[in-house]
Amino acid sequence: MDAYQAYMREVAQPMRDELTNNGFTELTTEAEVDQFMAEAKGSSIVLVNSVCGCAGGLARPAVLYAISEGGLKPDNLVTVFAGQDREATAKMREYFGEIPPSSPSIAILQDNQVKHFIPREEIEGADVESVVNHILTGFQAS
Prior knowledge:
The chain is of the alpha/beta class. It is about 50% helix and about 20% strand.
């Protein structure tokens, strides 16, 4: 690992921990993504994490609020980290079908099928409450 990659991994660690400390499983390899998707049962939230401001200020807090205070109880919480775990993120995006790559983004799955997707464009510039409501509405619709 070169110095830049090591630095970025260190910078991103608190962003990873924010999710894993709250029940998310981090998928860091293609094999982990494939295994999760092959075995996924019930409802899942997949957060495509990133280092950008709208991930830290909106996407991660909104998802965490939705599951802690909003009453959202998905069967599975997983995350891939765009720009960090590139292969795992690319593999997860293959499962999203024709949905264009977007980070951060939030996919709501039923079993292994995307039922609702919230791209960066619907996160960036919004307030946390709006993103929480979008998550809760998308989860109920799926």
